[in-house]
């Protein structure tokens, strides 16, 4: 019996019955499996980092979770397939590949074949992003999260960098901050300041090396970079080990209606603050193409 083939056929039947809106495949044989799927449902492939890229793929860095003595061959014996699929679904959601509904996952490595079904509304990170999207434009939030993940994962020119983005309530934020370097966005056209346009991200990554923070208005236009926040952190409590950037970001989110997104220089972890508290964090090992 061709067990893998039976799993793929069963997965397709199940996807139809439950009304799945997306199929995600995690397997070294993902391209072959994708060709077997005959449903009119979007199919994307989740790969471990370092695989060959395809514009439709979602990349999930699994290897960095493991001890160095673990090989790719034993990878899926050591990592929960539920965890892998959760990260792939989160990555696809942040990228905007899925908006709601049920996702069916096919995990097939060696002799291990699994079908995983997830309702994205039950995933904690997606719940939190949805809550934030009720206070700020989702397309702006999504763009900044993806850009921050890129910076946290890649750094700049081989070096880790930390930065922060303050979104919305721009007038109040600008009134509670000042430039510590010349504003590189002063006088630039809107199209060149649009953080939603990925063509502008290389420039943002370059300016992320400056001290200070990015100020982004409610429509996603960068108002300033290299901005220092003049805000009191009294009453703001964060987990130990976080530096002044995180403290200032949390404080401005408490003093204004803004959302603050930081990138840690040491770990690359992306943290999101609202109302003076950490809303959630995202591991930059999740890479989305």
Largest sheet: 7 strands, mixed
Strand order across the largest sheet: 7-9-8-6-10-11-12
| DSSP E strands, number | 13
3D shape: elongated
Low-pLDDT stretches: 62-67
List the helices and strands in order. Answer: HEHEEHHEEHHEHEHHEEHEEEE
CATH class of the largest domain: Alpha Beta
Task: Label the structural class.
Answer: alpha/beta
End-to-end C-alpha gap: 36 Å
CATH third-tier fold name of the largest domain = YojJ-like (1
Count every helix, treating DSSP H or I runs of 4 or more residues as helices. Answer: 10
Strand content: 15-25%
User: Which architecture of the largest domain does the CATH hierarchy give at level 2?
Assistant: 3-Layer(aba) Sandwich
Q: Which homologous superfamily in CATH is the superfamily of the largest domain?
A: DNA integrity scanning protein, DisA, N-terminal domain
Helical percentage: 25-40%
When the domains are counted, the total is 2
Family: Belongs to the adenylate cyclase family. DacZ subfamily.
Pfam families: DAC (PF02457), DacZ_A (PF21754)
Protein name: Diadenylate cyclase
Catalytic activity: 2 ATP = 3',3'-c-di-AMP + 2 diphosphate
Explain what this protein looks like in three dimensions:
The protein is α/β, with parallel strands linked by helices. The chain has 2 domains: 3-122, Pyruvate kinase, C-terminal domain (Pyruvate Kinase, Chain: A, domain 1), CATH 3.40.1380; 128-288, YojJ-like (1. The protein has helices spanning 3-18, 30-36, 75-78, 81-95, 124-132, 138-154, 170-175, 190-193, 201-207, 244-255; strands at 22-26, 43-47, 58-60, 102-109, 112-119, 163-167, 177-179, 213-216, 222-229, 259-263, 270-274, 277-282, 286-288. The strands form 2 sheets. It has a 7-stranded mixed sheet, sandwiched between helices. The longest helix has 17 residues, at 138-154.
